[in-house]
Design goal:
The chain has 345 residues and is α+β, with helices and mostly antiparallel strands. It has 2 domains: 231 residues, 3-Layer(aba) Sandwich (Rossmann fold); 103 residues, Nucleic acid-binding proteins (OB fold (Dihydrolipoamide Acetyltransferase, E2P), Beta Barrel). The protein is 24% helix and 37% strand. The strands form 5 sheets. A 6-stranded mixed beta sheet has the order 7-8-9-3-10-11, with helices on both faces. A 5-stranded antiparallel beta sheet has the order 2-1-4-5-6, with helices on one face. A 5-stranded antiparallel beta sheet has the order 14-13-12-15-22. Helix 3 packs across helix 4. The structure holds adenosine-5'-triphosphate and magnesium ion. The site of magnesium ion has 4 residues, from helix 1.
């Protein structure tokens, strides 16, 4: 069952179209990530779900009830949602406990019930011991957890999270990511999670909606997005594939502005003519066969090395095991174990 249905949603700021005909369903209990580059309309979409912005066209339904559309505009507090903003907006002059209690205090619940629920929410985000602290006595990660507890305390059926892990260091991010996953298992809340970090989206989501310039490029499970991207954009954005412009002639890909050609594996679907070649760095191998190219740079990644080549005006990255005695400028041969070809846009 779909908890959230967006249908043909359009939003412009002045003359600037930001969301351009977005149709999307979020299922009950699902964690759906909105993924895309900066400025593609992720926050705007979330704000429309929350009721902080109103779509110019299209409709939004939550839990079977129309909340936005022509003549319908349900205010944020009546949508049954929790939201954590990109800037986590914790009140600086209220204690942790008072911050988390605020949404319940607004609803005039009994003091004993408020304190019980605040305690539970703080336990969920592992901040029980910090109830009395003031925000300036907390780390960035702890502040984000306060914001999360405040969103959870009303037991919302839907939780909207806008880059809730964005201000954290890598270790803390990892930790909070795991906490979020555990929380969601426990609470069964439907989660819409905004991020521009593809690794985070791949790790957390049931499905990912990839946005580009206000439109959806693809909505799919992480594995499908990675292995069967619907466009060169998705392939580049999810998993950092190499994207090379060129032309297919006699079953061979000829790169634009370069002598380089790639023999295409037999199973690759392609038609003759202008095209875009998509090669994942880990699907390329260096050896005695394949396209000869001079090595432009090498980056040590720990257990592997990223070898970089220039192809026309594009960069080609190959991730392979470390090799002894390879110098920049040296010609190496590159073979594609797997490839994808898209018709040129
Ligand atoms: N209140 C506003 N008035 C005018 N333009 C806005 C407003 N809010 C956002 N925009 C513009 O709309 C576009 C989409 O913004 P949005 O905040 O939805 O992007 P985003 O995908 O969340 O990006 P980021 O990853 O940087 O947070 C941007 O070009 C932004 O400058
Ligand atoms: Mg944003």
């Amino acid at each position: 069952m779909a908890t959230i249905v967006l249908d043909g949603v359009v939003k412009a700021y002045g003359k600037n179209p930001v969301v351009r005909g977005l149709s999307l369903e979020v299922h009950e209990g699902e964690l759906l990530s909105l993924l895309g580059p900066s400025g593609c309309g992720k926050t705007t979409t979330l704000r429309m779900l929350a009721g902080l912005e109103h779509p110019d066209q299209g409709t939004i339904d939550i839990g079977g009830t129309r909340v936005a559309g022509p003549g319908v505009r349900v205010p944020p507090e009546r949508r049954g949602l929790g939201m954590v903003f990109q800037s986590y907006a914790v009140w600086p002059n209220r204690s942790v406990e008072a911050n988390v209690a605020y949404p319940l205090a607004l609803r005039r619940l009994a003091r004993s019930e408020i304190s019980e629920r605040v305690r539970t929410a703080l336990r969920w985000v592992r901040l029980e011991a910090f109830a009395e602290r003031m925000p300036h006595e907390l780390s960035g990660g702890q502040l984000q957890r306060v914001a999360l507890a405040r969103a959870l305390v009303s037991n919302p059926r839907v939780l909207l999270l806008d880059e809730p892990l964005s201000n954290l260091d890598a270790a803390l991010r990892e930790e909070l990511r795991a906490e979020l996953a555990a929380l969601r298992e426990r609470l069964g809340t439907t989660l819409v999670f905004v991020t521009h970090d593809q690794a985070e989206a791949l790790a957390l989501s049931d499905r990912i909606a990839v946005m580009n310039g206000g439109v959806l490029e693809q909505v799919d499970a992480p594995e499908r997005l990675y292995h069967a991207p619907a466009s060169a954009f998705v392939a580049r954005f999810v998993g950092g594939a190499n994207v090379l412009p060129g032309v297919v002639r006699d079953g061979v890909f000829h790169c634009a502005q370069s002598e380089a050609t790639f023999a295409l594996p037999n199973e690759v679907a392609r038609s003759e003519g202008p095209a875009t070649l998509v090669l994942r760095p880990e699907d390329l191998e260096l050896g005695t066969e394949g396209t000869p190219l001079p090595l432009a740079a090498r980056l040590f990644l720990g257990n592997s090395v990223e070898y970089r080549f220039a192809v026309g005006t594009s960069l080609l990255r190959v991730v392979a095991p470390p090799m002894e005695g390879v110098r920049t400028g040296q010609v190496l041969r590159i073979r594609a174990r797997r490839a994808r070809v898209f018709a040129a846009p």
